[in-house]
Amino acid sequence: MDIIATGMRLWVVENRLAMKRSQGVGSIEGTNRRIIIRIDTDAGLSGYGEAAPWAVFSGTTEAGVAVLATYFLPSIKGQRAAEIPKIMRLCDRLAVGHPEAKAAVEMALYDIVGKASGLPIYQLLGGKCRDRIPFSFSIANPDLDADLELASRMYEEGSRIFKIKTGFADTHDEDVRRVARIREHLPDDTDLRIDYNQGLAAFGALEKLKQMEAFRPTFLEQPVKAHLWDLMADLTDKLVTPVLADESVFDVPSASAAVQRKIANAFSIKLMKAGGMANGRAIASIAKQAGIPCYGGTLFEGGIGLNAAAHLIVATENISLGCEFYMPRYVMDPAETESMVDIRDGHVYPPEGPGLGIDIDEDVIGRCAIEALSV
Ligand SMILES: [Mg+2]
Questions:
Q1: Ion ligand 1: residue ranges with CB closer than 5 A
Q2: CATH for 309
Q3: How close is the Cα of 140 to the center of ligand 1, in Å?
Q4: Cα 175 vs. chain centroid, distance in angstroms?
């Protein structure tokens, strides 16, 4: 396939958010910024990608723009778009880090190759091992009544998984009261998970988490700071409830080390942490050998990044704990979102068309753009 990348368009978009989202290490409120790229080719085909850094988690939008525009894109020009591993190795050599920007480049290239071959990305990855992904919504609105109302509606529509964000309340007792209220409010067959986003102090963490086990969570996600691996291992050893590592397991090397050190019973895979689908898949494989299932996490992506992740998850057996791809539908303004995620009956479905399989509305991108450049 001799399709040559000829250039790229890059937008920084700003979306208004329908609600505040509070989580352990930080909150997002008002607006959310993302980077959208379009890689053009000499075949007239273009592919879209998205980078959604979160400053307190992985990096900044400003740094993402700089690395894409200054380092990656000029070097991608003239390359064969179908040689994805070669281009990703080039990006790795040009700049360390910046996994979100690398994920954006990779998904745009897959989009191009899929469109050129008439195949959806999940097919390029080998095909489906599942048709749909159990959908999880995160209860993170400091206005708990509003979230409970939304959760009830979503339960009626078929959703069974809800992830409660903790670790941002002033006290542990308040966290306990919130979780108790949510457990009481939702029907008994609800699959509840608890995510601290590193928000629990190391001192006394075990006792606090033991109290949370009374609410029968399916897992306890990243209770303490990412670097506290010995404590994570200790909690994993002493708690009955599985511990899931999110911030502690960013990429392929940390996943490999995390397996050896037994710091968790499950991992959260995010394209924005891993630096793309190939790395996400490698993490899932490493975890699988240790009997560790994975979960489809997000930062605050829109429809491009989340649909890319949906393709990966339907094609990767060990990402089996569902996904939290709720932002475009439930938090962003749909009128400001360039494409939606297909959520039905409590499940996410991947698009069926070639490439990412989504129609991108560039008018919407243009309306929300606070910066646009061509490279
Ligand atoms: Mg998390």
A1: 195, 246
A2: 3.20.20.120
A3: 11
A4: 24
